[in-house]
């Protein structure tokens, strides 16, 4: 029969006898079977081997890389025993807490073991001091119930029912007085390979817990009230209890940090899911922005693959890495919502959201959680976007708490973000800190708890990162498609009847004019023509899917210049403008003259000409002077047609030579200037593309020529400094840095600063 030594959850082993080789074989056999049969990481070893300086446990050294083996040097026995006694005290006070007699009983009752087994291997040494002897006796008496065990050779242990005596003599071996035949010592290679495998498993981290552990029972969904705050579990603590994340008056906002691959996106999914299951869309709304490349958050919005959406989600922005203006637009939107709530609170003579909801129960006052992933991209640089974003963040962080607007900023690494860390008043508002493994500068300066975290874990700290606020949570797997989809579909089926899908902004997608709400809303009047026709130019980078609209009333300067060399984008702006204008006129009620002077633009211009059918006329380099003469001379002629006339000029600067000749009584350029100056008041508007600012100035009369007749422009691959003070208010031009398929739109009649737009994609 096997000779069993009761050790884990049972007692201690004391080795004695004259067969040193036999005793040396028993120790690795006991330890290997304990480590190898337990779950990886469930057994932690402490080695005290002053005579051989750890040589007696050399085969177990690979465990040290995973923190599962700690060697104690000569003179360190007292500190080791003190630590073991403190662990026993802590487990009794906080883990067993009078509810269970031992960790074994707790595990049997709950199915979970919140503490590892701790095995101290003491291999000889000097005579124990009085203090060391007292601590050793305490471990013997109380350790087994708390999973703290001793394997001792060369040190006497007191008689106790938990101590098993193993005596090995050259011709005799006994366990608890019974004779046994010892097994051969385990091969050194087996010990090393086993320990390496265990260390590798531990370094990889324990598998995440089920996402469903965070969710309430289905019949309790949407039962919580957010008047005083939001609270939901995000994971499991070391003692098996759920760790809660709370947003309210305190803590009001959160910072999340962790290097790539440590589970930041998964943590955000877990938190959103736990909140969304507890609070209805009337209690909670989400706004999500992801500045890194990727589409993980797109599943919260309606898509082709899955028509469902998360009912709480109002905005999802993905691939926003180059569109910092979209992040700024979100902050402006939240600032406006904060002003609206503050005005309502002032009207009702209250100060907090809970009070406002009590006095205005019919109002729509959900708590708002805005999550910005890789937020440092928004604050990068020293331009006007970074400055305004930092100012808005500081105001929202300071005043948002009282009105139920909460910010969650996430980043892989926040080092060097001057716009944030240079504002201590802003950082101080983010008292909830969540640090993933190896996160930097999220917790307080001397709090390095995140550096030793295993995978699928996070440090939750609601005390501004101070070490005394640390809680460690094991985060479930929440971000895979099937796991999340089940919850989202259930919540989607519960959505209110008037619920609308979240606005999805994809920085890598090119919007279509036909899909634009503003375009679909355009109609032709039943009689006459519109007094103020609108030309749509592209989609504004904004929280709402609005179109950049150029109004063309009968007023001076109501012309458009598209500036830059990008053919496709310039054609797209003119195409959208023409199609949106044509949609507002009955057939035959407006004229469209299309002059294409760049062969590369010909396909796009031809497609527009064909689609406008009988309302359009075609001109090229040879016939464009005729267009200028007809349009220019007709402006002041008696009985001239009052039909609205739109001149769409593609690469008009290419016709400089042709327009230099006579076109009637004036040159073609003179006629163009006359049309620009006098045309809008007579319903004749120019929408022209120039392939550079200097070329446009030349056509208008030279470097010193006035540009008042160009009331609006869209700059493509044109640097802000080129636009200058004559086209843009102030000096030096706008802060504009060109990038593909983006334009800066400015209308001097309505704008104080330019709007970044996305030209609509080809209509065919």
Topology:
Elements (H helix, E strand, L loop, with lengths): L11 E5 L3 H18 L5 E6 L20 E4 L4 H20 L6 H8 L6 E7 L6 H13 L5 E6 L9 E7 L2 E4 L2 E2 L8 H17 L24 E8 L5 E7 L5 E4 L6 H15 L5 E7 L22 E6 L5 H24 L5 H7 L7 E7 L2 H4 L4 H16 L5 E7 L6 H4 L2 H4 L4 E4 L21 E5 L8 E5 L6 H13 L9 E4 L10 H4 L13 E7 L6 E5 L8 E4 L3 H16 L8 E6 L5 H11 L3 E4 L4 H10 L11 E6 L5 H5 L1 E2 L2 E2 H11 L5 E7 L2 H8 L11 E4 L4 H8 L15 E5 L7 E4 L6
Parallel strand pairs: 1-5, 1-6, 2-3, 2-4, 4-5, 11-15, 11-16, 12-13, 12-14, 13-19, 14-15, 22-28, 22-29, 23-24, 23-25, 25-28
Antiparallel strand pairs: 6-7, 7-8, 9-10, 16-17, 17-18, 20-21, 20-31, 26-27, 29-30, 30-31
Helix pairs in contact: 1-5, 2-4, 6-13, 7-10, 15-16, 17-19
- Largest sheet strand order: 21-20-31-30-29-22-28-25-23-24
Number of helices: 21
What class do helices, strands and sheet pairing give?
alpha/beta
Distance between the termini: 84 Å
Largest sheet: 10 strands, mixed
| Overall outline | elongated
- Low-confidence spans: none
Rg is 37 Å
Portion in strands? 15-25%
Strand element count:
31
Instruction: Quote the average pLDDT.
Output: 89
InterPro entries: FtsK/SpoIIIE/SftA (IPR050206), FtsK_dom (IPR002543), P-loop_NTPase (IPR027417)
Protein name: Cell division protein FtsK
Organism: Micromonospora chalcea
Keywords: ATP-binding, Cell cycle, Cell division, Nucleotide-binding
């Amino acid at each position: 029969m096997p000779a069993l030594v009761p050790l884990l959850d049972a007692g201690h082993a004391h080795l004695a006898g004259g067969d040193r080789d036999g005793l040396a074989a028993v120790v690795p056999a006991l330890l290997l079977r304990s480590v190898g049969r337990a779950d990886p990481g469930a057994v932690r070893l402490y080695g005290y081997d002053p005579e051989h300086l750890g040589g007696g446990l050399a085969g177990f050294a690979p465990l040290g890389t995973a923190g599962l083996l700690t060697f104690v040097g000569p003179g360190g026995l007292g500190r080791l025993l003190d630590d073991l006694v403190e662990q026993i005290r802590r487990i009794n006070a906080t883990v067993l807490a009078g509810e269970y007699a031992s960790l074994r009983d707790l595990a049997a009752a709950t199915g979970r073991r919140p503490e590892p087994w701790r095995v101290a291997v003491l291999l000889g040494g000097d005579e124990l001091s009085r203090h060391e002897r007292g601590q050793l006796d305490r471990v013997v008496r109380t350790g087994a119930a708390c999973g703290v065990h001793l394997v001792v050779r060369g040190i006497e242990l007191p008689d106790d029912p938990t101590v098993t005596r193993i005596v090995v003599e050259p011709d005799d071996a006994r366990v608890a007085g019974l004779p046994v035949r010892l097994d051969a010592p385990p091969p050194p290679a087996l010990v090393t390979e086993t320990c390496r495998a265990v260390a590798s498993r531990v370094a990889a981290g324990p598998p995440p817990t089920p996402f469903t552990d965070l969710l309430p029972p289905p019949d309790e969904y949407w039962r919580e009230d957010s008047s005083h705050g939001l609270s939901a579990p995000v994971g499991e603590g070391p003692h098996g209890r759920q760790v809660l994340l709370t947003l309210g008056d305190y803590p009001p906002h959160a910072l999340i940090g962790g290097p790539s691959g440590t589970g930041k996106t998964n943590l955000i999914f877990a938190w959103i899911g736990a909140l969304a299951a507890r609070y209805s869309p009337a209690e909670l709304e989400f706004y999500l922005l992801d500045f890194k490349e990727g589409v993980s958050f797109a599943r919260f919005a309606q898509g082709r693959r899955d028509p469902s959406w998360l009912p709480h989600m109002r905005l999802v922005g993905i691939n926003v890495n180059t569109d910092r203006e979209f992040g700024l637009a979100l902050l402006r939107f939240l600032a406006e919502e904060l002003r609206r709530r503050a005005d309502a609170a002032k009207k009702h003579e209250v100060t907090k959201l809970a009070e406002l909801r009590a006095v205005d129960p019919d109002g729509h006052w959900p708590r708002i959680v805005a999550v910005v992933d890789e937020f440092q991209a928004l604050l990068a640089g020293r331009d006007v976007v970074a400055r305004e974003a930092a100012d808005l963040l500081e105001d929202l962080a300071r005043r948002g708490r009282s009105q139920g607007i909460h910010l969650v900023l996430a980043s892989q690494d926040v080092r060097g973000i001057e716009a944030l860390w240079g504002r201590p008043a802003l950082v101080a508002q983010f008292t909830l800190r969540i640090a993933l493994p190896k996160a930097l500068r999220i917790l307080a300066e001397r709090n390095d708890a995140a550096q030793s975290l295993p995978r699928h874990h996070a440090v939750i700290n609601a005390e501004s990162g101070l070490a005394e606020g640390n809680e460690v949570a094991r985060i479930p797997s929440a971000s895979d498609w099937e796991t999340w989809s089940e919850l989202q579909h259930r919540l989607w089926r519960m959505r209110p009847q008037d619920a609308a899908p979240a606005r999805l902004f994809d920085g890598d997608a090119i919007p279509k004019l036909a899909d634009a709400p503003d375009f679909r809303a355009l109609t032709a009047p039943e009689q006459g023509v519109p007094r103020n026709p609108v030309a749509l130019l592209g989609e504004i980078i904004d929280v709402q899917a609005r179109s950049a609209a150029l109004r063309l009333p009968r007023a001076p300067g109501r012309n458009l210049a598209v500036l830059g060399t990008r053919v496709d984008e310039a054609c797209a702006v003119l195409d959208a403008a023409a199609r949106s204008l044509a949609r507002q006129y009955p057939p035959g009620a407006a004229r469209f003259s299309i002059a294409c002077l760049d062969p590369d633009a010909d396909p796009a211009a031809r497609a527009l000409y064909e689609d406008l059918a009988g309302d359009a006329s075609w001109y090229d380099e040879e016939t464009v002077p005729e267009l200028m003469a007809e349009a220019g001379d007709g402006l002041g002629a008696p009985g001239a047609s009052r039909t609205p006339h739109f001149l769409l000029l593609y690469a008009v600067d290419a016709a400089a030579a042709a327009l230099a000749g006579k076109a009637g009584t004036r040159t073609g350029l003179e006629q163009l200037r006359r049309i620009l100056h006098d045309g809008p008041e007579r319903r004749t508007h120019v929408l022209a593309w120039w392939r550079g600012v200097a070329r446009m100035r030349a056509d208008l009369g030279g470097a010193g020529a006035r540009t008042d007749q160009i009331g609006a422009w869209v700059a493509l691959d044109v640097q802000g400094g080129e636009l200058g003070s004559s086209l843009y208010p102030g000096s030096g031009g706008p802060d504009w840095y060109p990038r593909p398929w983006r334009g800066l739109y400015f209308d001097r009649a309505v704008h104080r600063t330019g709007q970044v737009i996305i030209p609509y994609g080809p209509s065919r």
